[in-house]
Specification:
- With about 280 residues, this protein is α/β, with parallel strands linked by helices.
- It is built from 7 helices and 12 strands.
- A 7-stranded mixed β-sheet has the order 3-2-1-4-7-8-9, sandwiched between helices. The chain has a 5-stranded antiparallel β-sheet with strand order 6-5-10-12-11.
- The longest helix has 23 residues, at about 25-50.
- It starts with a strand and ends with a helix.
- About 55% of the residues are buried.
- The chain binds zinc ion.
- Zinc ion binds near residues 8, 10, 104 and 134.
Length: about 280
C-alpha cells in the first residue's frame, strides 16, 4: 500500500513560536530536527501497519524542511516552492492512505501558532458550514482521489478540529495549548512513540476507512480580513463574493474547489500584506 504523508511543522511537540519553525536561525534548525523525528515516527508506524511505499510532501513555509537522506522508510520526498497542489502535491488515486503530520489549529483556535493557510488573509474557513483548518481543506483533495485521511498529529486543537470533520480519523495529540504561543508538550521521545503506534493502527485500518467525509456538493466558505482581499480573490475562477469580506467556492468537483482556493491564496498574498 502506498501512503501519502503531508508534513507541516507548527504541530510538533516542543515547537511553540515562529522562531522555531521559520527562517534559518538555530531555533528553526532545532525545530526541524524535532519535526524530522515525528515524520520518521509516522513513517515507521505506517510501515509496521502495512505501507510498502511512502511519499512525503513537505508542506511548511519554504517546503524544504527535512534532510532527504535522513527520512525513514526509503520515502521519496516532494519539496520546494510553487507546487500546484501545494500541501497535497503528489497525491493521486494510487494511494491507500493519507497522513497529516505536525498539523496546527485553524486561525480561530486558541492554540499552537494557529492559522489557516495565510494568517494575513483568512479569518475563518468553513466546509459545508463547519469551521475547519488546513486538514479539512486538504482533505478535499484526498476525498477527490478517494483516499482516506487516517491520521492527524499535532496539538489538541488541530486534532479535535480534524476529528470533527473526518469521523474515524486517528489522532496523536503531542501537545496541549496554553495560548497561541505557549503549549505543554510531551517529551519528544514520547511524542514519537505515540505517533508511531497511532500511525500503525491508522494504516492497518485504512482499507476499512471512509474515503470521503464530504457530502457533495461541497461549499468552502472563507471570511477574509479586508474587502480588497475579497475583491482580488474573485478574480480567480470559481470564487464567488458572498458578502463584503465573505467568499464562497462550491461544486461537486472537490479538486476544482481546492485549486480555486489555492489560486485565491496565492493571488491575494500581496494584497493581504497591505494594511
Ligand atoms: Zn500550516
Amino acid at each position: 500500500m502506498k501512503v501519502f504523508l503531508s508534513s507541516d511543522m507548527e504541530g510538533t511537540a516542543g515547537v511553540v513560536d515562529w522562531e522555531q519553525c521559520v527562517g534559518d536561525g538555530p531555533e528553526a534548525a532545532a525545530g526541524r530536527r524535532l519535526l524530522l523525528a515525528e515524520v520518521n515516527a509516522a513513517i515507521e508506524g505506517a510501515v509496521a501497519g502495512g505501507a510498502t511505499e511512502i511519499v512525503v510532501n513537505d508542506s511548511h513555509a519554504t517546503m524544504r524542511n527535512l534532510p532527504a537522506s535522513e527520512i525513514a522508510g526509503g520515502a521519496s520526498y516532494i519539496s520546494g516552492s510553487h507546487k500546484p497542489l501545494y500541501m497535497m502535491q503528489g497525491l493521486d488515486g494510487s494511494f491507500g492512505a493519507v497522513l497529516f503530520v505536525s498539523y496546527h489549529g485553524s486561525v480561530g483556535a486558541p492554540a499552537g501558532l494557529s492559522h489557516t493557510y495565510n494568517p494575513r488573509a483568512v479569518v475563518e474557513a468553513r466546509i459545508n458550514g463547519q469551521v475547519t483548518g488546513e486538514a479539512g481543506i486538504n482533505a478535499l483533495v484526498a476525498a477527490h482521489y478517494g483516499v482516506p485521511v487516517v491520521l492527524v498529529t499535532g496539538d489538541s486543537c488541530a486534532c479535535g478540529e480534524t476529528a470533527a470533520l473526518i469521523p474515524g480519523v486517528h489522532s496523536a495529540v503531542v501537545k496541549e495549548h496554553v495560548s497561541r504561543l505557549a503549549a505543554h508538550s510531551l517529551h519528544p521521545s514520547r511524542a514519537c512513540a505515540l505517533i508511531r503506534e497511532t500511525a500503525q493502527r491508522a494504516v492497518a485500518g485504512a482499507a476499512q476507512a471512509e474515503s470521503s467525509p464530504f457530502a457533495a456538493p461541497v461549499s468552502l466558505e472563507l471570511s477574509v480580513r479586508t474587502t480588497d482581499i475579497a475583491e482580488a480573490a474573485t478574480w480567480v475562477r470559481g470564487v464567488e463574493r458572498a458578502g463584503p469580506r465573505e467568499l464562497r467556492i462550491s461544486g461537486d468537483d472537490l479538486l476544482a474547489v481546492y485549486r480555486s482556493f489555492c489560486a485565491a491564496i496565492l493571488l491575494t498574498r500581496t494584497v493581504a500584506e497591505a494594511m
